[in-house]
């Protein structure tokens, strides 16, 4: 049995019968339709936001618009799908791909269509799904736990940080964190510029303050660094070395308030796609870190109107 939507004339009859107080069942009988068809038509096309009235002309326009949208993706060419595959293999999200294509004037596909394309590809044995983000890590609540972190002498709390930093109005304000691998030695240090999301990643042979300061100074010496915001890990205890070398000010977030460094936390989640938890970082090279940072910096971001961090970031003037 083939389902057929009601016609424009039937919509006008439906409107008249509703105004006369007829029930859904009686309207369906008069129009020779199943009552579910009538019920579905009213639910989809009545003006629920305003007065709940059913207006046949508006219902017709909505139906035609939906039909056009549903047909949009039938116009997709293999060239567009090739672009989608290319950007997926760069680990862009479907939303980032659509935003980027829209910027280029290619309004042919929605992010939902890309997800459906990925699942169809997976059902056929394809591997495009492996380029999607992993689920965010679970967090455990800490009920009245003793706070053993944050014992850093003369540290400046994040509440002392200029308001301009929070508003992302100017460039040069960075967030810093470390990403641990399997074992207790090798790890990564990640730095994200708050306004643009520009990211640099460094490989550390150990988590000592000396090794961290050496790598951070090397990575940031050619960048504008007005402030750095860190957590309360022991690797940041010698923050005064960074302040002196980079002519900057280091601020510290409240212990266990990771949302105060949300930009860095989110970036670390993206980096975990390449260095998952439990993976040893011993054999990771700085060249690999630079390659991953390049991927992140050339990936369009929704909050940047789908421009890339690299496009928005202004290098330090000499």
From TrEMBL:
InterPro entries: Homeodomain-like_sf, Integrase_cat-core, IS30-like_HTH, RNaseH-like_sf, RNaseH_sf, Transposase-Integrase, Transposase_IS30-like, Transposase_IS30_CS. Keywords: DNA recombination, DNA-binding, Transposition. Residues 158-317 form the Integrase catalytic domain. The keyword DNA-binding applies. It comes from the Bacteria. Required for the transposition of the insertion element. Belongs to the transposase IS30 family. NCBIfam families: transpos_IS30. This is IS30 family transposase. It comes from Enterovibrio gelatinilyticus.
């Amino acid at each position: 049995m083939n389902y057929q939507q009601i016609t424009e004339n039937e919509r006008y009859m439906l409107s008249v019968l509703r105004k006369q107080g007829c029930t859904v069942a009686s309207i369906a009988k008069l129009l020779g339709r199943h009552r579910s068809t009538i019920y579905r038509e009213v639910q989809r096309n009545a003006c629920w936001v305003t007065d709940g009235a059913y207006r046949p002309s508006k219902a017709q326009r909505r139906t035609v618009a939906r039909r056009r949208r549903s047909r949009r993706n039938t116009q997709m060419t293999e060239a567009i799908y090739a672009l989608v595959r290319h950007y997926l293999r760069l680990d862009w999200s479907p939303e980032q791909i659509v935003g980027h294509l829209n910027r280029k004037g290619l309004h042919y596909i929605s992010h939902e269509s890309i997800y459906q394309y990925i699942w169809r590809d997976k059902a056929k044995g394809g591997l495009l799904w492996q380029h999607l983000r992993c689920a965010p890590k679970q967090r455990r609540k800490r009920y009245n736990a003793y706070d053993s972190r944050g014992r850093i002498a003369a540290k400046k709390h994040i509440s002392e940080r200029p308001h301009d930093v929070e508003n992302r109005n100017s460039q040069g304000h960075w967030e810093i964190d470390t990403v641990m691998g399997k074992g207790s030695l090798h790890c990564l240090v990640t730095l994200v510029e708050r306004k643009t999301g520009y990211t640099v990643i460094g490989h550390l042979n150990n988590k000592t303050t000396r090794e961290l300061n050496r790598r951070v100074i090397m990575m940031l010496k050619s960048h504008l660094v007005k402030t750095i915001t860190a957590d309360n890990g022991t690797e940041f205890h010698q923050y005064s070395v960074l302040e002196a070398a980079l002519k900057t000010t280091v601020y510290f977030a409240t212990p266990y308030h990771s949302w105060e460094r949300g930009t860095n936390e989110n970036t670390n989640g993206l980096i975990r796609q390449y260095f998952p938890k439990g993976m040893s970082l011993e054999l990771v090279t700085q060249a690999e870190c630079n390659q991953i940072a390049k991927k992140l910096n050339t990936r369009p971001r929704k909050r940047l109107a789908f421009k890339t961090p690299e496009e928005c970031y202004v290098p330090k003037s000499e």
